[in-house]
Design brief:
This protein is α+β, with helices and mostly antiparallel strands and about 425 residues long. Helices cover about 45% and strands about 10% of the residues. The chain has four domains: about 5-115, no CATH class; about 125-215, DNA polymerase, domain 1, CATH 1.10.150; about 230-385, hpI Integrase, Chain A; about 395-430, no CATH class. It has helices at about 5-15, 80-100, 110-115, 125-135, 140-155, 165-180, 185-205, 230-240, 250-260, 265-270, 275, 300-305, 320-330, 340-355, 360-365, 370-380, 420-425; strands spanning about 25-30, 40-50, 50-60, 65, 70-75, 280-285, 290-295, 410-415, 415-420. Strands 1-2-3 form a three-stranded antiparallel beta sheet, with helices on one face. Strands 4-5 form a two-stranded antiparallel ribbon. A two-stranded antiparallel sheet has the order 6-7. InterPro entries: Arm-DNA-bind_5 (IPR035386), DNA_brk_join_enz (IPR011010), Integrase-like_cat_sf (IPR013762), Integrase_catalytic (IPR002104), Integrase_recombinase_N (IPR010998), SAM-like_dom (IPR025269), Tyrosine_recombinase_XerCD (IPR050090).
């Protein structure tokens, strides 16, 4: 597959007042020297004015099988595969030139070769993201989330020129995450928040996008956090102290209950030492927000810590903790998908259900804004429905005997409501 000559001339001769695009040619050639097998290396030559760059390709052929006119390998062993590689490189060159042209960036032979090798972050969105991830300082979990989001995008498409990014592209990618990858809406939201961050960063760095970034809106999904009721936590508490507890469940359950009593994130729990929790009141720094905070060890939590001395000495990864918690929930017959973060949700809802202050709760959770805490207020609002049972307009006397037959109504006699059988009342003669 060869380039259309008219299209090639358009790319190679375009000039504007900014001199963004200048004459650039390229061709494949074969080196004169040979290896011990009598084969020569095929390479790419890129020229632009007085500038020249070469790029060695992983293709070696005998000179008699090289066609210098078509710049392709003649029919021979592996010739079809070699020509596919050359066609792919040539198609990529056109794509790179188009992308630089659309985004009004200067393209040099060296930049072209770098872009072919995906070393130019200004051309490829994935390379851009990975470049900034590797040169940024993130917390451990934040770094992991960023890498996971970009690696999933890379699975979807290994190379994504900025010119390919459109709102439709992101819609298709979201559908892929939901249907092919089986991701949930909250997971997609997390990934897209990260992608939006890099879109904004690219725009700030002067890279022109093929769409209006203000229309790339990432809305948080409407979800209800999973939490445990006091009765469910009581089941776990009893299982923790039971003589029949699976030994592999002790540590993960202990860490989970610690979160239920303190509301700490798993990252913060992982950062604590046994010495920290030996104090009745300890100070720690939130891994996520870097804010300092004090936390109290209540009596019930102290019993848990004393029961298992290995807590905050022996560690389990976040993944193993969550894996064990799912098995623990099944063992305790709790029909909920439990993770370490559910402990944090349980702590928050329990405080509000017991009429705790949402402002104080926000501080205990280490939230940077009260709006993050309000989601728990919506959950506990449902408990207000229980008060509807108190509404009654029927003035029944709770101590009156129940009538076995006939309708009953209540009649005011000497300032007191008494039950009256309708059938008997009707039998009485009129006054």
């Amino acid at each position: 597959m060869h380039l259309n000559s008219a299209l090639q001339r358009t790319f190679d001769t375009r000039r504007d007042t900014k001199k963004i695009f200048v004459a650039m040619t390229h061709k494949f050639a074969i080196r004169s020297d040979q290896n011990k097998d009598g084969k020569s290396l095929v390479f790419l030559i890129v020229r632009s004015g007085k500038l020249k760059t070469t790029m060695n390709l992983d293709i070696k052929v005998e000179k008699k099988f090289w066609d210098p006119i078509k710049t392709r390998v003649k029919k021979s062993e592996n010739s079809e595969n070699f020509n596919i590689i050359l066609d792919t490189i040539e198609a990529k060159i056109i794509l790179i030139k188009r992308d630089f042209l659309i985004t009004e960036r200067i393209l040099t032979p060296e930049l072209l070769v770098d872009a072919i090798n995906n070393n130019t972050p200004e051309f490829d969105f994935i390379s851009f993201c990975l470049h900034h991830i590797s040169n940024s300082v993130y917390a451990k979990n934040t770094m992991k989330a960023h890498k996971t989001a970009i690696n999933k995008l890379k699975e979807y498409r290994s190379e994504i020129p900025f010119s390919m990014l459109t709102l439709d592209f992101f819609e298709r990618y979201k559908k892929y995450l939901l249907t092919k990858k089986g991701n949930t809406d909250p997971t997609c939201w997390t990934d897209f928040k990260i992608l939006k961050k890099f879109i904004n960063l690219a725009h700030d760095r002067g890279i022109k996008l093929a769409f209006d970034k203000s229309k790339f809106v990432v809305k948080a999904p409407k979800t209800t956090p999973v939490f445990l009721t006091p009765e469910e936590v009581e089941k776990l508490h009893a299982y923790f102290f039971s003589e029949f507890t699976n030994p592999y469940h002790i540590l993960p359950l202990g860490y989970f209950l610690f979160s239920c009593y303190t509301g700490l994130r798993v990252s913060d729990i992982q950062s604590l030492t046994r010495k920290d929790v030996e104090k009745d009141i300890f100070r720690f720094q939130h891994i996520k927000t870097k804010n300092d905070q004090y936390m109290k060890i209540v009596d019930e939590l102290r019993e848990i810590l004393d029961h298992e001395p290995k807590l905050f000495v022996d560690r389990l990864s976040d993944q193993k903790l969550n894996k064990h918690l799912k098995l623990i929930a099944t063992t305790c017959k709790i029909d909920k998908k439990i993770s370490m973060h559910v402990g944090r949700h349980t702590f928050a809802t329990t405080i509000l259900l017991k009429n705790g202050s949402i402002t104080k709760l926000s501080k205990l959770l280490g939230h940077s804004s009260l709006k993050h805490t309000m989601v728990y207020n919506h959950i506990t609002d449902q408990s207000a429905l229980e008060d509807l049972d108190k509404i009654s307009f029927n003035k029944k006397n709770p101590h009156s005997p129940k009538e076995e037959s006939g309708s009953v109504y209540f009649k005011l006699v000497d300032g007191e409501y008494i039950p009256v059988n309708v059938d008997e009342e009707l039998k009485k003669p009129s006054p």
